[in-house]
Write a structure and sequence with these properties.
Elements lengths: L3 E6 L5 H10 L3 E6 L4 H10 L23 E4 L28 H11 L3 E7 L9 H12 L2 E9 L7 E2 L1 E9 L36 H16 L8 E2 L5 E2 L5 H5 L2 E3 L21 E3 L2 H7 L12 H10 L3 H16 L5
Parallel strand pairs: 1-2, 1-3, 3-4, 6-9, 8-10
Antiparallel strand pairs: 4-7, 5-7, 10-11
Length: 337
């Protein structure tokens, strides 16, 4: 049977693609990938064997140069709308580019190619940014080029990973496709806990915090608590779930754990003080990968600093797969044009 062709825009390290590949199996083929971050490109290339090169800055790519496709995957940048960021929206500026308007490149490309489905993921804050006007503009743009738009906030913790991560998902079907039966998936597994994603011991010593750093975190948290703020480090229980992992230090510091299994107390990097004797450590990049539903076969080829950023910016594969399965039901229930 003819394969469904997809493109992967703002591809990151390929989390959305993995979810769709799992759902559609050998019925889907990726024909174009765009990602401007060179470190993300390196991780992507290590894990996907494509015959074409990854395209860079999507704003510089002529839509007519992109191969024909049936599904557009687009996790367009979320920092402009994030509750944790400055929430600049359409006025956002980062390295001379407005991340808040990059969705317009998705619209530009899809208006030219008219795929059957456009799939987007973003932070929950997008829905309420500028009192909902931003989200209304984005949905309106897709409707204007001929699509029926569905959207819903889903939480990763309901889909087989122990991470409290709410994100908004948009599924846009071309108007000539009967999408009346489409429903977002209901969470089917909220049983997973941190213990389910823990790496085997021994965990390398560099993941255990120094006693000086632990004390610094405690003082920092105490200052914020005295000021009535909720900021600060957090130690998660093994039988609990993680908070949302995000790029930046607080993504790690708000997801610390106590791991009393045997491990080396000899530092392998230069640290102030000694390794703490309370066995407090940050989660490893592999554990973060598992929190996002990535398989253990996913290759981690870069330094930890890049990996934490990449997984913090990525998607939860399990959620993507569940939505993709619902999209597949619609597409395969009718004769595709």
């Amino acid at each position: 049977m003819e394969k469904i062709k997809s493109i992967d825009l703002f591809a990151g390290i390929g989390g959305i693609r993995i979810g769709f590949d799992r759902a559609f199996g050998d019925r889907i083929e990726t024909v174009f990938v765009s990602e401007w971050d060179t470190f993300a490109q390196r991780t992507y290339k290590a894990n996907f064997n494509d015959s074409f090169e990854i395209a860079g800055d999507i704003t510089q790519i002529d839509e007519k140069e992109i191969p024909a496709f049936d599904i557009c995957l687009a996790g367009f940048p979320c920092q402009a709308f994030s509750l944790a960021g400055k929430r600049m929206g359409f006025d956002d500026d980062y390295k001379g580019k407005c991340r808040g308007t990059l969705f317009q490149d998705v619209v530009r490309i899809c208006e030219e190619h008219k795929p059957e489905v456009i799939f987007c993921e973003n932070v929950k804050g997008l829905a309420i940014h500028d009192r909902g006007r931003t989200f209304k503009i984005i949905k309106g743009a897709f409707k204007e080029i001929g699509y029926t738009v569905f959207d819903k906030v889903l939480n990763s913790k309901d889909f087989g990973v122990p991470q409290n991560r709410e994100r908004i998902y948009l599924v846009c079907f071309r108007n000539d496709i009967d999408s009346s039966t489409f429903r977002f998936p209901e969470g089917s597994d909220d049983t997973k806990r941190i213990v389910d994603i823990i790496q085997d011991a021994p965990i390398p010593a560099n993941y255990y915090l120094s006693d000086v750093y632990v004390e610094t975190l405690r003082r920092h948290k105490a200052r914020h608590e005295a000021a009535g703020h909720g900021f600060g480090y957090e130690i998660r229980e093994w039988d609990g779930i993680a908070g949302a992992i995000v790029c930046g230090g607080m993504g790690r510091e708000r997801n610390l754990i106590i791991d009393q299994r045997p491990h080396s107390m000899i530092p392998v990097t230069h640290i102030k003080g000694d390794i703490n004797k309370e066995d407090i450590r940050k989660m490893t990049p592999r554990e973060w990968a598992r929190l996002q539903g990535f398989p253990d076969s996913f290759k981690l080829v870069l330094a930890d600093t890049h990996l934490y950023k990449q997984f913090g910016n990525s998607v939860t594969v399990n959620v993507i797969e569940a939505i993709a399965n619902e999209i597949k039901k619609v597409l395969f229930s009718q004769e595709r044009k």
